Amino acid sequence: MTKGLKALITGGLAAAILFGAQIAPARIVVESGMGTIGGLVGAGKLAGAVRLLKSEYRFDSPSGAAALRDFSLTVLHQALNDPDPYERCYAATSLAAYDDWSGRPIIAAALDSPNLLIQKAAVEGLAEAGNPEALSILERFYRLSGSVSQAIALHALAEVKAPAVMPILIEAATDPHSAGVFWAVNGLGRMGDRDALPYLHVLLVKSIDPMVRTEAAHSMILLGDRSLGMTDTLEEGLGSGDMEVAAEATLALGDAHDPTTVGLLKETVSNNQAADQLRIAAAVALTHFGNDEGLPMLMAALGDQRRRQDVLAMLDHLDFTVGRPLLLRALACDEPQVRLTAYEVIGRDGGEAEIGLLSDAIGRTTDPMDLAQIAWSLGRIGRPDSIPVLLNLVQNPAPEVRYTAAEALARIADKRDN
Q: How far is CA 339 from CA 102, 371, 372, in A?
């Protein structure tokens, strides 16, 4: 993408076009018990609020789940006044997931920010919310943005599986000038809608960009199209001189589950003359065949400062069961980035057994970033056994821990209440 592009929207235009609707009022809890609990939260007495919540409600009942969600959203409302713009943005988009748009001005300011990291936080938060209003805002943001911000939006939209997103992804994927074509094609594969196959097939046949061809083949495979020649396209990518294309093609071979490629992947892992990035990708791909032969090499690479980033970039492509020992090694690493990546992968793919792992990890750290990521992961696992752990974390003095734990509790409670 080109440098020095114009910032996307003026403040006035963002307010007038993106957020013209009237701000929705915050949800008000009228039950007597929750009124007292809300007062304690407002006074900053979270320990007392949690004690009262636990004494008055059973979280395995509909009323208890509703009370837990309302408590969590009340905590998130406190974050709308936090001095940190990232915390305000996190709270505003988290509340938006429950159709509470009291943080709408905060979202507008974040999308209009010249700081691309704040802009990215707002875009990802809206994509995570995923409801019609959030997606409508994202679409307008995408259409009014320059290339850089459009790429940020497509990266976030690639994670969304709502049908409303598909036309945007198809438009971007078929636009030769789009800066986010890779993420658009990637998102079409993750969405699970086979109506995208004709568009992906055209890209596979006509695109002259080897990365786009490789990702189109990868997405078609994820959508269940394993027609003749698909593996050939990926093997062609593996043999290309572009290491990014080769690594992506290798990971796609793991998703293809074509047993005829196992020999090629093993050969790549054992080839000491091959680039480290390619060998790591092949080892990760092998785990999708129930094969752990590449794990020793991945373990060694994780402990090697020079090769570590390549492992972290591919950690979420591991087969979770086969790759679990590598994740356990990562959890015990002294390097914060390694631990944070492992926590995230466990949150996305783990289950009941991983709640204990994450709970144990809390006892080994006081770092707010670790604790916040653990809270996020517990929320994504989404099991009721996480509730006591998160109720402890929501009392943490660090804002990033407290508000992430509140969002996680609301997510779990909402599942139980519906």
A: 34, 11, 12
pLDDT at 221 over 70: yes
pLDDT score of 416: 64
Question: Can you read off the two tokens belonging to residue 342?
Answer: 């492992």
Global pTM reads 0.86
Q: Determine the Cα–Cα distance for residues 182 and 251; give it in Å rounded to an integer.
A: 15
Degrees, nearest 5: CA angle 173-118-135 = 45
Condensed to tens digits (0 to 9), the pLDDT of residues 31-78 reads: 445 678 888 998 889 999 999 999 998 999 999 999 999 999 999 999
Residue 352 amino acid letter? E
Q: For residue 409, how far is the Cα from the chain centroid?
A: 17
Are residues 61 and 395 in contact, defined by beta-carbon separation less than 8 angstroms? Answer: no
**pLDDT on residue 132:** 95
Q: Which amino acid is at 156?
A: A
99 vs 27, 42, 102, 164, CA distance in Å? Answer: 10, 21, 9, 17
Sign, CA dihedral 111-114-119-120, equals positive
Evaluated on CA atoms 323, 328, 331, 334, the torsion sign reads negative
Tokens of 202: 């055209």
Binning the chain into helix, strand and coil, the percentages to the nearest 5 are 70, 0, 30
Dmax (CA) for the chain in angstroms is: 70
Q: Considering the chain, what is the average pLDDT of its residues? A: 88
